[in-house]
Amino acid sequence: CLLQIGTGPRIGVGVTKIFRYHSLLVDLSGTLHIENEVTNGAVEALERLKSTGINVRFLTNTTKESKNYLYERLTKCGFSVKKEDIFTSLTVSRQYIEHHHLNPLLLLEEAALEDFKGLQCSGDMNAVVVGLAPSKFDYESMNNAFRVLMNGAELIAIHKGRYFSRGDGLALGPGPFVSALEYATGKSASVMGKPEKQFFMSALEGLNCEPHETIMIGDDVRDDVEGALLAGFKAILVRTGKFRPGDENRSSVPPTAICDNFAAAVEYILNN
Protein backbone atom coordinates (compact mmCIF):
# COMPACT_ATOMS: atom_id res chain seq x y z
CA CYS A 1 0.00 0.00 0.00
CA LEU A 2 1.60 3.26 -1.15
CA LEU A 3 0.59 6.57 0.35
CA GLN A 4 1.04 9.88 -1.46
CA ILE A 5 1.98 12.70 0.88
CA GLY A 6 1.67 16.06 -0.80
CA THR A 7 4.09 17.83 1.55
CA GLY A 8 6.86 15.30 0.98
CA PRO A 9 10.22 15.83 -0.74
CA ARG A 10 10.04 16.45 -4.47
CA ILE A 11 11.98 14.67 -7.17
CA GLY A 12 12.46 16.76 -10.25
CA VAL A 13 9.81 19.30 -11.23
CA GLY A 14 6.21 18.76 -10.20
CA VAL A 15 6.76 15.18 -9.03
CA THR A 16 5.71 14.32 -5.48
CA LYS A 17 7.54 11.48 -3.79
CA ILE A 18 5.37 8.47 -2.94
CA PHE A 19 5.85 6.96 0.52
CA ARG A 20 5.08 3.38 1.44
CA TYR A 21 4.42 4.28 5.07
CA HIS A 22 1.68 6.40 6.58
CA SER A 23 3.02 6.45 10.14
CA LEU A 24 6.20 5.81 12.07
CA LEU A 25 6.63 4.51 15.61
CA VAL A 26 9.98 5.26 17.24
CA ASP A 27 11.59 3.71 20.31
CA LEU A 28 13.36 6.19 22.60
CA SER A 29 16.16 4.84 24.80
CA GLY A 30 18.84 3.18 22.69
CA THR A 31 17.33 4.44 19.43
CA LEU A 32 17.05 8.24 19.68
CA HIS A 33 19.28 8.62 22.73
CA ILE A 34 21.24 6.78 25.41
CA GLU A 35 20.61 8.62 28.68
CA ASN A 36 21.39 12.26 27.72
CA GLU A 37 23.47 11.46 24.63
CA VAL A 38 21.73 11.64 21.24
CA THR A 39 22.50 8.93 18.70
CA ASN A 40 24.42 10.22 15.70
CA GLY A 41 22.31 12.53 13.49
CA ALA A 42 19.03 11.66 15.23
CA VAL A 43 17.78 15.22 15.85
CA GLU A 44 18.27 16.28 12.24
CA ALA A 45 16.88 13.00 10.89
CA LEU A 46 13.68 13.33 12.92
CA GLU A 47 13.10 16.88 11.65
CA ARG A 48 13.72 15.75 8.08
CA LEU A 49 11.22 12.93 8.45
CA LYS A 50 8.57 15.11 10.06
CA SER A 51 8.84 17.59 7.20
CA THR A 52 7.46 14.93 4.83
CA GLY A 53 4.12 14.80 6.63
CA ILE A 54 4.52 11.24 7.93
CA ASN A 55 2.89 10.81 11.34
CA VAL A 56 5.52 10.18 14.02
CA ARG A 57 4.79 8.77 17.46
CA PHE A 58 7.13 7.55 20.17
CA LEU A 59 6.57 4.15 21.75
CA THR A 60 8.63 3.36 24.82
CA ASN A 61 8.88 0.73 27.53
CA THR A 62 10.85 3.13 29.73
CA THR A 63 9.56 2.70 33.29
CA LYS A 64 12.16 4.55 35.36
CA GLU A 65 10.74 7.95 34.39
CA SER A 66 7.33 9.56 33.97
CA LYS A 67 6.06 10.88 30.64
CA ASN A 68 6.83 14.45 31.76
CA TYR A 69 10.40 13.43 32.59
CA LEU A 70 10.81 11.75 29.20
CA TYR A 71 9.42 14.79 27.41
CA GLU A 72 11.81 17.11 29.26
CA ARG A 73 14.75 14.82 28.48
CA LEU A 74 13.93 14.74 24.78
CA THR A 75 13.53 18.52 24.69
CA LYS A 76 16.87 19.05 26.44
CA CYS A 77 18.48 16.69 23.93
CA GLY A 78 17.27 18.96 21.12
CA PHE A 79 14.28 16.99 19.83
CA SER A 80 11.10 18.83 18.90
CA VAL A 81 8.26 16.57 20.05
CA LYS A 82 4.73 16.81 21.38
CA LYS A 83 4.06 15.27 24.78
CA GLU A 84 0.83 13.70 23.49
CA ASP A 85 2.83 11.77 20.88
CA ILE A 86 4.75 9.86 23.57
CA PHE A 87 3.14 6.50 24.40
CA THR A 88 4.56 4.79 27.46
CA SER A 89 3.94 1.42 29.08
CA LEU A 90 3.39 3.34 32.34
CA THR A 91 0.31 5.00 30.86
CA VAL A 92 -1.12 1.69 29.66
CA SER A 93 -0.42 0.15 33.07
CA ARG A 94 -2.31 2.90 34.87
CA GLN A 95 -5.27 2.47 32.54
CA TYR A 96 -5.27 -1.27 33.28
CA ILE A 97 -5.16 -0.65 37.04
CA GLU A 98 -8.04 1.83 36.90
CA HIS A 99 -10.15 -0.36 34.62
CA HIS A 100 -9.79 -3.36 36.95
CA HIS A 101 -10.17 -1.27 40.15
CA LEU A 102 -6.86 -2.50 41.57
CA ASN A 103 -5.06 -1.36 44.71
CA PRO A 104 -1.43 -1.96 43.74
CA LEU A 105 1.95 -2.30 45.38
CA LEU A 106 4.18 -0.31 43.01
CA LEU A 107 7.77 -1.46 42.52
CA LEU A 108 8.77 1.71 40.66
CA GLU A 109 11.39 4.43 40.91
CA GLU A 110 10.35 7.80 42.36
CA ALA A 111 10.70 9.45 38.93
CA ALA A 112 7.99 7.16 37.54
CA LEU A 113 5.46 7.51 40.35
CA GLU A 114 4.16 10.81 38.92
CA ASP A 115 2.21 8.80 36.33
CA PHE A 116 0.35 6.98 39.13
CA LYS A 117 -0.71 9.96 41.24
CA GLY A 118 -4.21 9.66 42.67
CA LEU A 119 -4.31 5.87 42.76
CA GLN A 120 -5.13 4.09 46.00
CA CYS A 121 -1.91 2.30 46.94
CA SER A 122 -2.34 1.31 50.58
CA GLY A 123 -4.14 -1.17 52.77
CA ASP A 124 -5.07 -4.56 51.34
CA MET A 125 -3.23 -4.68 48.02
CA ASN A 126 -4.52 -6.90 45.24
CA ALA A 127 -1.82 -6.29 42.63
CA VAL A 128 1.95 -5.97 42.36
CA VAL A 129 3.20 -3.71 39.55
CA VAL A 130 6.84 -4.16 38.53
CA GLY A 131 8.77 -1.68 36.40
CA LEU A 132 12.48 -0.93 36.09
CA ALA A 133 13.19 -0.07 39.72
CA PRO A 134 16.84 -0.76 40.66
CA SER A 135 16.39 0.82 44.09
CA LYS A 136 13.52 -1.58 44.84
CA PHE A 137 15.12 -4.82 43.69
CA ASP A 138 16.59 -5.70 47.08
CA TYR A 139 15.68 -8.82 49.08
CA GLU A 140 13.22 -7.19 51.48
CA SER A 141 11.29 -5.33 48.75
CA MET A 142 11.10 -8.42 46.55
CA ASN A 143 10.07 -10.56 49.52
CA ASN A 144 7.31 -8.10 50.38
CA ALA A 145 6.05 -8.30 46.79
CA PHE A 146 6.24 -12.09 47.00
CA ARG A 147 4.08 -12.13 50.15
CA VAL A 148 1.46 -9.83 48.59
CA LEU A 149 1.28 -12.12 45.56
CA MET A 150 0.99 -15.23 47.71
CA ASN A 151 -2.00 -13.60 49.39
CA GLY A 152 -3.82 -13.60 46.06
CA ALA A 153 -2.64 -10.40 44.31
CA GLU A 154 -2.22 -10.17 40.54
CA LEU A 155 1.27 -9.75 39.08
CA ILE A 156 1.56 -6.94 36.50
CA ALA A 157 4.75 -6.41 34.50
CA ILE A 158 4.98 -2.99 32.91
CA HIS A 159 7.27 -4.85 30.55
CA LYS A 160 9.65 -7.80 30.69
CA GLY A 161 12.72 -6.35 29.01
CA ARG A 162 15.79 -8.47 29.74
CA TYR A 163 18.33 -5.66 29.63
CA PHE A 164 18.84 -2.12 28.34
CA SER A 165 21.68 0.21 27.41
CA ARG A 166 22.87 3.02 29.65
CA GLY A 167 25.93 5.25 29.66
CA ASP A 168 28.23 2.75 31.36
CA GLY A 169 27.09 -0.29 29.34
CA LEU A 170 24.30 -2.87 29.51
CA ALA A 171 22.13 -3.19 32.62
CA LEU A 172 19.47 -5.65 33.78
CA GLY A 173 15.89 -4.77 32.89
CA PRO A 174 12.79 -5.63 34.95
CA GLY A 175 12.23 -8.94 33.14
CA PRO A 176 14.56 -11.05 35.32
CA PHE A 177 12.90 -9.73 38.49
CA VAL A 178 9.41 -10.35 37.13
CA SER A 179 10.50 -13.88 36.21
CA ALA A 180 11.82 -14.42 39.75
CA LEU A 181 8.40 -13.54 41.18
CA GLU A 182 6.67 -15.75 38.61
CA TYR A 183 8.94 -18.65 39.52
CA ALA A 184 8.46 -18.20 43.28
CA THR A 185 4.68 -17.79 43.17
CA GLY A 186 3.68 -19.92 40.20
CA LYS A 187 1.81 -16.93 38.76
CA SER A 188 2.11 -15.55 35.23
CA ALA A 189 2.45 -11.79 34.86
CA SER A 190 0.11 -9.68 32.79
CA VAL A 191 2.47 -7.72 30.49
CA MET A 192 1.50 -4.17 29.50
CA GLY A 193 4.18 -2.81 27.14
CA LYS A 194 6.13 -4.00 24.14
CA PRO A 195 6.09 -6.65 22.67
CA GLU A 196 2.33 -6.92 23.38
CA LYS A 197 0.20 -6.35 20.27
CA GLN A 198 -2.31 -4.12 22.06
CA PHE A 199 0.43 -1.71 23.08
CA PHE A 200 1.45 -1.22 19.45
CA MET A 201 -2.16 -0.85 18.37
CA SER A 202 -2.82 1.82 21.01
CA ALA A 203 -0.31 4.10 19.27
CA LEU A 204 -2.38 4.07 16.07
CA GLU A 205 -5.50 5.53 17.67
CA GLY A 206 -6.58 8.64 15.78
CA LEU A 207 -4.14 8.17 12.88
CA ASN A 208 -6.59 6.51 10.47
CA CYS A 209 -4.09 3.92 9.30
CA GLU A 210 -3.49 0.19 9.46
CA PRO A 211 -0.51 -1.70 10.91
CA HIS A 212 0.86 -2.62 7.46
CA GLU A 213 1.08 1.12 6.68
CA THR A 214 3.20 1.72 9.78
CA ILE A 215 6.85 1.04 10.51
CA MET A 216 8.59 0.70 13.89
CA ILE A 217 12.22 1.66 14.52
CA GLY A 218 13.99 0.23 17.55
CA ASP A 219 17.15 -1.29 19.02
CA ASP A 220 15.48 -4.26 20.74
CA VAL A 221 15.06 -7.19 18.35
CA ARG A 222 12.48 -8.88 20.58
CA ASP A 223 10.37 -6.10 22.06
CA ASP A 224 10.59 -3.50 19.27
CA VAL A 225 11.09 -5.49 16.09
CA GLU A 226 9.62 -8.96 16.57
CA GLY A 227 6.71 -7.53 18.58
CA ALA A 228 5.85 -5.06 15.83
CA LEU A 229 6.24 -7.61 13.04
CA LEU A 230 3.98 -10.15 14.76
CA ALA A 231 1.38 -7.39 15.24
CA GLY A 232 1.35 -6.77 11.47
CA PHE A 233 3.65 -3.73 11.36
CA LYS A 234 6.91 -3.29 9.48
CA ALA A 235 10.04 -2.89 11.62
CA ILE A 236 13.61 -1.63 11.31
CA LEU A 237 16.31 -2.85 13.70
CA VAL A 238 19.04 -0.30 14.45
CA ARG A 239 22.58 -1.17 15.55
CA THR A 240 22.64 1.21 18.52
CA GLY A 241 21.71 0.96 22.20
CA LYS A 242 21.24 -2.64 23.31
CA PHE A 243 21.84 -4.12 19.84
CA ARG A 244 24.44 -6.88 19.73
CA PRO A 245 25.89 -8.65 16.67
CA GLY A 246 23.65 -11.55 15.76
CA ASP A 247 20.45 -9.91 17.01
CA GLU A 248 19.24 -9.65 13.43
CA ASN A 249 18.95 -13.47 13.41
CA ARG A 250 17.15 -13.74 16.76
CA SER A 251 13.68 -12.77 15.58
CA SER A 252 11.16 -15.41 14.48
CA VAL A 253 10.39 -13.13 11.53
CA PRO A 254 13.12 -11.14 9.72
CA PRO A 255 13.28 -7.35 10.19
CA THR A 256 12.06 -5.21 7.31
CA ALA A 257 15.53 -3.64 7.31
CA ILE A 258 18.64 -3.37 9.48
CA CYS A 259 20.29 0.06 9.74
CA ASP A 260 23.31 1.45 11.57
CA ASN A 261 21.28 4.02 13.50
CA PHE A 262 18.06 6.05 13.53
CA ALA A 263 19.39 8.52 10.94
CA ALA A 264 20.17 5.66 8.56
CA ALA A 265 16.70 4.20 9.17
CA VAL A 266 15.12 7.51 8.20
CA GLU A 267 17.22 7.51 5.03
CA TYR A 268 15.93 4.02 4.26
CA ILE A 269 12.31 5.14 4.70
CA LEU A 270 12.74 8.23 2.53
CA ASN A 271 14.36 6.16 -0.22
CA ASN A 272 11.65 3.48 -0.20
Class by helix and strand content? alpha/beta
Distance between the termini: 12 Å
Instruction: Describe the strand arrangement of the main beta sheet, using strand numbers.
Output: 7-6-3-14-15-16
Helix tally? 8
Give the low-pLDDT segments: 1-18
Query: Which of globular, elongated, flat, extended, rod-shaped describes the shape?
Result: globular
| SSE ordering | EEEEEHEHEHEEHEEEHEHEHEEH
Computed CA radius of gyration, to the nearest angstrom? 19 Å
State the helicity in percent bands.
Answer: 25-40%
Query: Which oligomerization state do the chains in this entry correspond to?
Result: single chain
Largest sheet geometry: 6 strands, parallel
Give a count of the beta strands, DSSP E runs of length 2 or more: 16
Mean pLDDT metric: 89
Percent strand equals 15-25%
Task: Compile the SSE list and pairings.
Layout (H helix, E strand, L loop, with lengths): L2 E2 L13 E2 L3 E4 L6 E2 L2 E2 L3 H9 L4 E6 L6 H10 L9 E3 H11 L4 E4 L19 E4 L8 H12 L3 E4 L5 E4 L2 E4 L2 H11 L4 E2 L5 H6 L11 E5 L2 H10 L3 E5 L18 E3 L2 H9 L2
Parallel strand pairs: 3-6, 3-14, 6-7, 8-9, 9-10, 10-13, 14-15, 15-16
Antiparallel strand pairs: 1-2, 4-5, 11-12
Helix pairs in contact: 1-8, 4-5
Protein name: Haloacid dehalogenase-like hydrolase domain-containing protein 2
GO molecular function, one term: metal ion binding
InterPro entries: HAD-like_sf (IPR036412), HAD-SF_hydro_IIA (IPR006357), HAD_sf (IPR023214), LHPP/HDHD2 (IPR006355)
